[in-house]
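Database export, one record per block. Field names are fixed; values are copied verbatim from the stored entry.
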Amino acid sequence: MIRVRTNLGRVITIRLNAGDVGRIRFALSPVWEAMTSVRALSNNTAQSVHGPWLQKVRPTIAGDDLTLLRALIPPYGYIPDFMTPAPPRRSTSFESGLAAIAATPHEIVTDELGRLHHDTPHPLLPELIANPAKALELITSALETYWRRAIEPEWRRMRSLLQEDLAFRLDELASGGIERLFRNLHPSISYRGDRVEIDRPYTCDGEPMAGQGLLLVPCVFTWPAGLAVTGAPHVPTITYPPRGLGRLWEDRQDTTDSPLADLVGRTRAAIVSHLDLPMSTTHLAHQLGVSAPTLSVHLSILRNAGVVSSHRDGRTVLYHRTPLGHQLLAAATPLATSA
């Protein structure tokens, strides 16, 4: 069984037994990203990491009515748990997450919106509490519109980063066990043998149902601290910022017609450009749109030349750019820019 308690509003503790440890799983969620990005719009701390996205999306949604979403997702504090449903699989669509929200039992909607109104009062909330069916209709409609305009255009970029994080975490778990996984997950998350502790300045009510394990969700817009879902009947969930988040919104150098491409070829130049973080052959091939066997040939040539290197982490071979690769890419940048 997992038990949840708070320690003076400072530490959330999720207690684990042997069965729960065996049911730890990872997933990514487009709905989580949409929900938490609304908070980023009104949170000044998001500017340092998500500044390019904010500058791009704010003019796009300037005429949109976000009153409902802002009422449901305040800048700080509690967000109704039913609005962040647990993904049933490692990778799910936005539409499936939206359907899960729409299927929320009305008593849960009433209860969680009531808690939200208690913590962060808003004039829209009493009407939603009184009519949960209408509330779900309005919420899903507003969220879908927002997703199409603010998040979907950037989802491919975000998903690539999230998938790379999932691959890395699964390798961590396979090669070093649960201790290694949590040691490198996030500074605010600690594994203590029979429990996971999360440093967060809010309280949690209720107790999760037994036997649900623990869900870990990398989430771009929960930076810097992540979120925790612990209230019954929801699956206990911890979100955390993915690796490489600081480079998410950087415009990747186009090496197609660069001097580097002239030297090593377009595909190999693209490989060098993409290896900001260690990647497996499968994930890199997906990003570049080439077959894995073709990519392996190019990687072998680059590795023999000392431009990329590889190491085995668990069952996966990860490739990364070497110092020589960094130098080649950096040297090509000013030449490509001035051409």
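Remark 1: Residues 252-338 form a domain with the Arc Repressor Mutant, subunit A fold (CATH 1.10.10.10).
Remark 2: The chain has two domains: 4-244, 252-338.
End of record.
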